[in-house]
Amino acid sequence: MKTLIAPLAMCVVLAGCASSSQLSTGAGNDAFTLWSPQFPDGGALERRHAGDLSSNPNCVGSNVSPALSWSNVPAGTKSFALLVHDQEGRNGLGVAHWVAYNIPAGVTSLAEGEISQPSAKYTGGKSTLGLPTYMGPCPPARTGQHHYVFTVIATDLDPGQLPAGLSMGELLDRLNGRAKAGSSIVLRYGRP
Fold first, then answer.
1. 3-class SS of residue 88
2. Which one of 1, 35, 52, 125 is CB 3.0 to 4.6 Å from 99, fit for a cystine?
3. CA Rg value for the chain
4. CA–CA separation, 165 and 124 (whole Å)
5. 90: how many CB neighbours lie within 10 A of its CB?
6. What's the pLDDT tens digit per position in 109-147?
7. What pTM did the predictor assign?
């Protein structure tokens, strides 16, 4: 089984996932751009955005997903995929917090809390915890700020073309040669 770091590196190669570190919003730029209307790139998520699994003492939040928007969609885009990945999670092995795809090309934003539950707007894949919906940050205490990479990938696949339940690695394999562009932001979260 491939580690999650390798698929994320593959995302950078396949989708041209460019960090939007110099971009705080999608305004005034022609590049395909992902941003959060709530947080700047590099900003800190609030406790309510952390996970809420009662079985995990590291999950101390309300599992409210942040709002996301993207603009300057590449010509020929038919659907989008979205990933949320914590590269420091599991002692550097990484944690996929959300894997979603089959998002229709007409959808260019998701409201706060919208991806915390199933939706007709996307097909849920399988996170590291086996969940099809957003699972907020759950880092152990005193492990510093973890960096949650939110990535949107424009694809030439029709919505509904991919089956439910794909892991991050499986999705990236299926997007090989089908990705048109990508954009990422990083949001941070840590527990004292």
1. coil
2. 125
3. 15
4. 6
5. 12
6. 999 999 999 999 999 999 999 999 999 999 999 999 999
7. 0.85
